[in-house]
Amino acid sequence: MAGQNPLRVDPIAEARRQWHVHGWDDAAAGMTAVTSVMRAQQLMQASVDAALKPHKLTFARYEMLRMLAFTRAGRLPLASAIDRLQVHPTSVTNTVERLVKDGYIERVKHPSDGRAALLLLTESGRAVVEDATVSLNTEVFERVGMNHADTTALVAIVARFREGAGDFVNDPESTREPD
Q1: How far apart are CA 100 and CA 121, in angstroms?
Q2: Are 65 and 133 in the same domain?
Q3: What angle do CA 129, 134, 139 make, to 5 degrees?
Q4: Could you tell me if 47 and 71 lie in one domain?
Q5: Long-range contact list for 144-151, CB < 8 A, 24+ apart?
Q6: Helix H or strand E encompassing 119
Q7: Is the pLDDT at 1 greater than 70, yes or no?
Q8: pLDDT tens, 114-161?
Q9: Number of structural domains in the chain
Q10: H or E element, residue 30
Q11: By C-alpha distance, which of 23, 11, 51, 15 is closest to 136?
């Protein structure tokens, strides 16, 4: 996951030192947290991109396929996909159009709501998402670069941050299998 030529000094630690030198002590910890998470995201994204490249998928397209594959019937209303992916509807529409063009999903009229679209996972879509999942699991998720305790702690900390930022409401009763 790390770069091929690691730096000899942690630039984020140096930035924190500079924040203190300039008298921004109250902001130093926050700046360090934000910058650290953003850099970690870049490193993780690079690993994910490398694992998905042989499958000719972006992470957005992979997420859509995986979400459809998790449903009982391999189908989901477009509106539900937009809600669950937490991205702008235009981005989801672009992702859907590309997956339709690639033959991985079909977009059809909803059987009970003529105004809505239903997304259907094709057999080739199921095959590519299963292959891509094997790659992600073995190349990224099983080797994330932290031990189990650190991974668990990081997920809990980030979940508390996300909940506090209004990203979701922690309601154990709302967990259910997708449609």
Answers
A1: 9
A2: yes
A3: 125
A4: no
A5: 144/1, 144/44, 145/1, 145/2
A6: strand 117-121
A7: no
A8: 778 899 999 999 999 999 999 999 999 999 999 999 999 999 999 999
A9: 2
A10: helix 25-52
A11: 51
